[in-house]
Known about the structure:
The chain has 330 residues and is mainly beta. It has two helices and 20 strands. Strand 8 and strand 9 form a beta hairpin.
Amino acid sequence: MVERSKKPSEIPISPSAPAPLVTISEDNSRVVASLPAGDRIEILLHGATIISWKSGNGKENLFLSSKALLNGSKPVRGGIPLVFPLFGAPSSSHEATSKLPQHGFARNSRWEYLGKTSSESFSIGASGADASVKLDFGLSDSMLDEKSKSAWPHAFGLTYSITLAAGELTATLQVANTGSAPMEFQTLFHTYLAVNDITTTTVTGLESHPYTDKVPSPKQTSPSNTPITFTSETDRVYTSPNSSEGAEGVETKPVSVLASGKPTYEIRREGLGDVVVWNPWNEKAKGMADFAPEDGWKKMVCVEAGSVEKFSRLEGGETWEGRQSIKALL
């Protein structure tokens, strides 16, 4: 045997990078995903409703009523319910959606979990801090109950993709008209953000937007040119200041939520030109049977990206897509 004076060094084997973890509950009612950095999300298959989003430091970023019903009997009070194909109460002025329940049927329908796509760093010694996971959910006309089918007799397919990354949550909705007849719809991410104190909370980024103030009754209002503050019940629908903002594939200027002047959340939107800002305050909160604790209104603000000022129209075979991304900054 010939001895070599210099043997080739061993090739090091890279340790496995930490990977995102996805689990489905035993009763098949919810999907939970977590990242190596500690970020975590929980989605109820009823409505494909995001009911919890925690940052890596353990902070809960969403408000969920302690009386919210999570058994599929009604829409969830809190988290991020998905509004489709109607925003608000039905109206005889729009016949195609006049028989639908308030906010449509998506938030009150059972969705299908379609699977996950994950990405993680494979560098030596990686901590998994740049890992992410995308969860896909689907709803189509064939999955609706007979009442919903009768109220909105369109062939459609929804694909709802929820991506969790370190400190960031992205939700993307794709709407497909799978029939031959045109269909019209509205949609919105009804996001309940957790805050420490609503009285010291401000929302910026909408100063130049006209809005409809729904308290006490709807009225069109010119841009305020000042940040939004909260001293009483607030229910406003902010609309695009120009036609290009909110167009599909076009990113709008970010909207920020601040606590005592410190940035807490940053919201970016594509294809969603409208933003609803809502807090029920004490009296209205008392009138909601599923809203708790009683002073929970102090701990939440809804900043809801959507396309609700008008109805979007899809011809047969066409698709539409809207996206919101929320960064948790604390």
